[in-house]
Design goal:
globular; five-stranded parallel sheet; alpha/beta; Leucine-rich repeat, LRR (right-handed beta-alpha superhelix); 134 residues
Length: 134
């Protein structure tokens, strides 16, 4: 994606709170993402080339929907737990073998999709704890 294409996506996201950069061949956060820290609610980075999710993800505190499907992620950083407003989280079709414990901080999470060994057991525990809290 060229600079003008990214600029247009950023400008639209500033107005709508939605940034969809799927199939963008991204492997890191462009500096322009910083402009969206305060208002981004939906971030779709599916079908890119992320091997590592940058810690900067934790700056997007208004995020409600995060799609990281079809990347090459080997690890989700612990700082993901700072995104307490997340309602949906998708990181299927990556190279994950574990999930960070900080996912338990995501108390508003309604849907989490992952194809990680032990994910089903984790979600059962998470759901049980969430039910006890409310």
């Amino acid at each position: 994606m060229g600079n003008s294409g990214l600029k247009q996506h950023i400008e639209t996201a500033q107005k709508t709170g939605v940034l969809k950069l799927s199939q963008g061949h991204l492997n890191g956060f462009p500096p322009e993402f910083r402009q969206l820290e305060g208002n981004l609610r939906t971030l779709d980075l599916s079908d890119n080339k992320f091997v590592v999710l940058p810690n900067e993800i934790s700056r997007f505190l208004q995020l409600r929907h995060l799609n990281l499907n079809k990347n090459k992620l080997a690890k989700i950083p612990d700082c993901i737990g700072a995104l307490t407003k997340l309602e949906t989280l998708n990181f299927c079709h990556n190279n994950l073998s574990t999930l960070p414990r900080t996912l338990s901080n995501l108390i508003n999470l309604k849907q989490q999709l992952a194809d990680v060994p032990g994910h089903d057991v984790y979600m059962e525990r998470f759901t049980a704890v969430k039910k006890k809290m409310f």
